[in-house]
Amino acid sequence: MSFYEIIEHYRNFDFDDFFAQTTAADVAHVLSKERLGDMDLLTLLSPAASACLEPMAHKARQLTVQHFGRTIQLFIPLYISNYCSNQCVYCGFNRTHAIARSKLSLPQIEAEARAITRTGMQHVLLLTGEAPAATPMDYLVAAVSLLKNHFASVSIEIFPMDKAQYAALNAAGVDGLTLFQETYDPDIYRQVHLAGRKMDFRYRLDAPERGARAGFRAVNIGALIGLAEKRREVFFTGLHARYLDDRYLETEISFSLPRFNPAEGEYKPAFPADDRAFVQFMMALRLFQPRAGITISTRERARFRDHLIPLGVTRFSAASSTGVGGYAEPAQRESTQFAISDSRSVAEVAAAIVAQGYQPVYKDWDRI
Amino acid sequence: MTQDSLVIGGHMFDNRLFTGTGKFAANSLVADMLAASGSQMITVALRRIDASLASDPILSHIPKTVTLLPNTSGARTAEEAVRIARIARAAGCGDFIKIEVITDTKYLMPDNYETLAATEILAKEGFVVLPYMLPDLPLAKRLESAGAAAVMPLGAPIGSNRGLQTAELIALLIENCRVPVIVDAGIGRPSHAAQAMEMGADAVLVNTAIATAQDPVAMGRAFALAVEAGRIAYLAQMAEESRIARASSPLTGFLTEMESGT
User: Which residue does chain B place closest to A245, by CA atoms?
Assistant: First the structure.
């Protein structure tokens, strides 16, 4: 089976009709339940539920504190290449963009690692564009082998791979896989991915499952909020996590909630989510999957991120550079994949977490 | 009352509340909680500790008088648990080890088979092994034979605060194990802890319920008091429960009176 069958299952489902019929009383009923089903998630994503954010927030806070304590795990992204053969209409690394392309040499990666560890960060997320010719397996394995000497945890957010390739990276020292489907709507997926390997919706959709099978400890999924009808996108994100969670008990399945931010370039998303909707979506996912980690990146503004701390988030990136390198020589930061909205230092983000009565956690893993 | 100490791995514990370091809003609260509760043993996940122990932000808040119980959180196999235990000892965390082998990230149920395998290896290597387990009597006896210093059955899933859902099974362990039985996981309120101690558990380990309380320091003290009350009640041999009222003037007393002809 594939999660695709679940998407297919809902192909003719009348979401609009469901939302039109959902009332505040339905939401209250869902909030009184312990384990939520698919329709309960959809109820929490409904327009009716947007009037029930306060009771949702109380339950989201209680569940998050119960399962994660008053802690926020910190990590930092490291882009090692921006070569890309895809043409994703929303992305800064799109192959038609005339930006300077580069990839870090191993000594450069070493220098970046040293610069990052000086900030106290111990969990790193390694990123590339999708260009296997520029960043072949041996290069990735070498990069991981090098980074694992500097960090307690190395995760990847790169192009989707076969199970055997994932297993090779897992053996090299990668413990977490992040891969966003971007959109769960196959038609819109086709419209926004115009060229390259990424055009294959199914190959990407099944990649998190291949990652779980390959043995990654953690698999993190998400939709890029804004590309397609947003309530449905979050609904399928939740269902995708539940699908994986039910099948791969050994794997921690978690969410990211990337959304287009206003600071970004020319691409105007067709279905932007405002802050109120964003908070609703994050809390709905928390209530649906109480044990799932939730990552909020520096795409979101500093003050907004601080307010999210009690509402369900469990992981923050901080001090991120979204161009290649950028830590060893910050003055030479290159073109970015997306604009960041929270440019605070690691120490500043940590202080903001403490100010909310939470503990910033730098290390929560060991390769043994 | 005579001295009522619990001895595990050659260490004597006068306080039967064991605690944990996870989920606190700040590591400094751990020191205050330990002071308020009097807890003498605390568990810490090795995955959260820095290799350079001297400057570790968690360990620096634990007084030297408190026994450190490193745990193997993150281990998915016996082999991983064994490696973590060895790293913990090499890093200077002592001989105690709480084995946690969890292959299920959904309910965080311990894997009893892997736990037994890890216990067999680590006990031979001289560790003071405290395995976290599902309360299963045959397994508890095998852990005992393998050299476990205690067994740590769960009351309910980790962090669930549901109390002693497995009470009937834990009671069998208490009745039949020669090693101490420490109820771990699921204890959400001081009354749950008192219940475990009244049943005859030798100690309880509480983390989430203390760490996530609005006032973890006061909650640590509340748990310590509950544990002490439950222990005293157990030693005092409580009167048995009955659903039927027992009148202090028996209803059939007249029969005896008539028989004796008074």
Answer: B106
User: How many structural domains comprise chain A?
Assistant: 1
Q: Is residue A115 part of a domain?
A: yes
Q: Within a domain: residue A104?
A: yes
B66 vs A135: CA distance, rounded Å? 50
Choose the closest CB to B74 out of A245, A357, A366: A366
Q: What range does the domain containing A302 cover? A: 3-361
DSSP state of A178: E
The secondary structure element, H or E, covering residue A302 is: helix A302-308
What per-residue string of b and e applies to A83-93 under the rule 16 or more CB within 10 Å gives b?
bbbbbbebbbb
Q: What is the pLDDT of residues A142-192, one digit of tens each?
A: 999 999 999 999 999 999 999 999 999 999 999 999 999 999 999 999 999
Residue of A nearest to B22 (CA): A69
Contact criterion met (CB < 8 Å) for B80 and A368:
yes
**Are residues B25 and A66, on separate chains, in Cβ contact within 8 Å?**
no
Tell if the CB–CB gap between A366 and B27 is shorter than 8 Å.
no
Amino acid B1: pLDDT: 46
Of A267 and B164, more confident: B164
- Please count the residue pairs, one from chain A and one from chain B, whose beta carbons lie less than 8 angstroms apart: 68
For chain A, what percentages of helix, strand and coil (3-state, to nearest 5) are there? 45, 15, 40
pTM of the model: 0.85
Residue of A nearest to B106 (CA): A249
- Residue A241 within any structural domain of the chain: yes
| Closest by CA position to A230, among listed A280, A290, A294 | A280
Residue A368 inside a domain? The answer is: no
What's the CATH code of the domain at A38? Answer: 3.20.20.70
Q: What is the 3-state secondary structure (H, E, C) of B48-80?
A: HCCCCHHHCCCHHHCCCCCEEEEECCCCCCHHH
Residues of A with CB under 8 A from a CB of B: 65-71, 152, 217, 245, 249-253, 291, 354, 357-359, 361, 363-366, 368
